[in-house]
Specification:
Distance between the termini: 34 Å
Number of domains: 2
Number of strands: 0
Radius of gyration: 23 Å
Strand content: under 5%
Helix content: over 70%
Order of helices and strands: HHHHHHHHHHHHHHHHHHH
Largest sheet: none
Number of helices: 19
Structural class: mainly alpha
């Protein structure tokens, strides 16, 4: 691996983004059919298990792999092979312990965790997902190690393998479990078993990769002590872990409050409350899917921007961060506006066998489409603050947003006139608060102050025009071609026409308004050809 040319920021991001694109396509073939199989109620059991899993996963792996990546990157740049090997060995033991504790806790406390979240039928899905915590902890260690050497390919391949197994095992198993007459919670457990098997296969791949790509070159460097390395990993990783864990904790509390208010304030049964919460979760799947494309940018941002700052190259760091802002704006703004403009048709499109759930989820997605923009900006600005050595700030901004979310959900969901519609509103307000605070602190601590107006003005204008165009084409198609029919094929065809029109309009506007710059694409594969083709400057 040391002989490989170190990938650039945007080159590494492009590899991971390509993997994420493949994973999300596979994920769409998994999640959307799964939603059709499980329906709103079964979806809640599935998501409740994931809330617990995400907390344990985030607590174990959120910041520590970035710390491994940073330390490995520094040792790699200095040619200190013994230091790199020591970092990996120490990290592996640390993650092995974390994974073991997390998996055992999730398995043996499944009933208690499900009861705490006011969703007792989620116990079996929680138990089925427990072994995945162990596998993903070790995966996180290995991915951080390879990424620290500028090699994003093993991470990309392992992510695709994980998604393929999830699809190949989880979806058929969920269908079969329900087909033989078992309950919805068992169907959700079957679907989740595919996730567990996917992480296991991905772990086997990365283990084999590292075993066959060892750098056996002899060097004379004396590695740091194990205690010192652990302290360095924890010092960098714990603030990031706390920041990300704060949102996971808030989401768990939030789920408890939503389910509790639906049952206690509105006097719904647990299955009825699960149905409403599941419809909200179905809408939330769309923003979550798009937001996942932001993580490849942030994973490449930290080591390369940090390296520029270490060289006191403030201008270089500013170029990397400005490019990241532009890329996120170009992706997140049109996606959020588009989801909001065509919310109900999109939900009908992806839920053909759950029409009632789709119609109920549409108004949620209308709000969550706008929330998507702020979710993406939160992920990016958190990474920027971490790059500037301000790891603790995102902890407090996330907590501030989380408190807003919890309080608003308690008030709004408990109101009979608003009920579950309060959940997406509180989600939007939560991320708006976080991003507002983060943007202020990014501006405060940046050596070269970012010009937010110039970064966002054109993408916002282009996205609004795109949303209007998509909505107009959908409406015209629905009326002129299908006579306002509410049949699935009519709605689906009109929605696809609206989406295609929106993509075309936005593509033209990006080029016409020169939103994309040459420096944003130069480092990606075939970037120079793209620059010439689009006449970028």
């Amino acid at each position: 691996m040391s002989s490989k040319r170190k990938q650039s920021f945007l080159g590494g991001a492009a590899i991971l983004a390509a993997a994420v694109a493949i994973v999300k396509v596979i994920g769409a073939f998994y999640k959307f059919p799964l939603n059709n199989i499980l329906g709103g109620e079964g979806k809640t059991y599935f998501d409740t298990a994931y809330r617990i899993y995400n907390f344990l996963l985030t607590f174990s792996t959120a910041g520590l792999p970035l710390a491994i990546s940073k330390l490995t990157s520094q040792a790699h740049a200095q040619g200190r092979e013994n230091e790199k090997r020591k970092i990996f060995r120490v990290s592996l033991v640390l993650f092995l312990c974390l994974g073991t504790v997390g998996s055992l806790f999730m398995f043996f406390q499944a009933d208690g965790l499900a009861g705490f979240l006011e969703n007792s039928l989620a116990a079996q899905p929680i138990r089925a997902l427990a072994p995945a915590v162990f596998c993903v902890c070790l995966l996180a260690c290995m991915r951080g190690y390879t990424q620290g050497q500028g090699n994003m390919t093993p991470t990309a391949v392992s992510q695709v393998l994980e998604a393929l197994l999830k699809l190949a095992v989880g979806l058929p198993l969920a269908w079969y479990v329900l087909h033989i007459g078992l309950s919805l919670d068992m169907g959700a457990a079957g679907a989740i078993l595919g996730v567990t098997m996917g992480t296991a296969v991905s772990l086997l791949f990365l283990t084999g990769y590292l075993a066959t790509h060892r750098n056996r070159a002899e060097t004379l460097d004396v590695p740091s002590g194990s205690g010192q390395l652990i302290r360095q990993i924890l010092a960098f990783g714990i603030p990031i872990t706390l920041s990300n864990s704060a949102m996971s904790i808030i989401n768990i509390i939030d789920t408890k409050i939503v389910m509790g208010q639906l049952q206690n304030a509105l006097l719904l049964s647990e299955p009825d409350a699960a149905l409403l919460n599941g419809q909200y979760s179905m809408a939330m799947d769309m923003p979550n899917m798009v937001a996942s494309f932001v993580y490849p940018v942030t994973m490449s941002l930290i080591p390369f921007a940090a390296a520029a700052l270490a060289r006191q190259d403030n201008a270089g760091a500013d170029r990397i961060i400005s490019s990241a802002f532009r890329i996120i704006a170009i992706l997140a703004l049109p996606a959020g506006v588009g989801l909001s403009a065509l919310a109900t048709p999109i939900m009908v499109l992806v839920l053909p066998t759950q029409r009632e759930d789709a119609l109920a989820a549409g108004p949620h997605l209308q709000v969550l489409g706008i929330a998507l923009i702020f979710i993406c900006l939160m992920i990016l600005t958190n990474a920027i603050l971490q790059t500037y050595g301000r790891e603790r700030i995102p902890i407090f901004t996330v907590i501030a947003g989380g408190v807003v979310k919890v309080v608003m959900n308690y008030i709004l969901v408990g109101n009979p006139d608003i009920n579950i519609h309060g959940a997406p509103i509180s989600t939007l307000c939560c991320y708006m608060v976080i991003v507002g605070l983060n943007l202020y602190f990014v501006w405060k601590y940046s050596p070269q102050k970012p010009r937010y107006l110039s970064l966002f003005a054109k993408p916002v204008a282009a996205s609004v025009l795109m949303g209007i165009g998509a909505w107009a084409v959908y409406g015209l198609s629905d009326r002129l071609l299908f006579g306002g029919s509410d049949a699935y094929l009519a709605v689906a065809a009109s929605a696809l026409l609206g989406i295609c029109a929106g993509v075309a309009v936005y593509g033209v506007l990006v080029i016409a308004l020169r939103i994309l710059r040459a420096e944003d694409v130069r480092s990606i594969p075939h970037g120079e050809k793209l620059i010439k083709l689009l006449h970028l400057k």
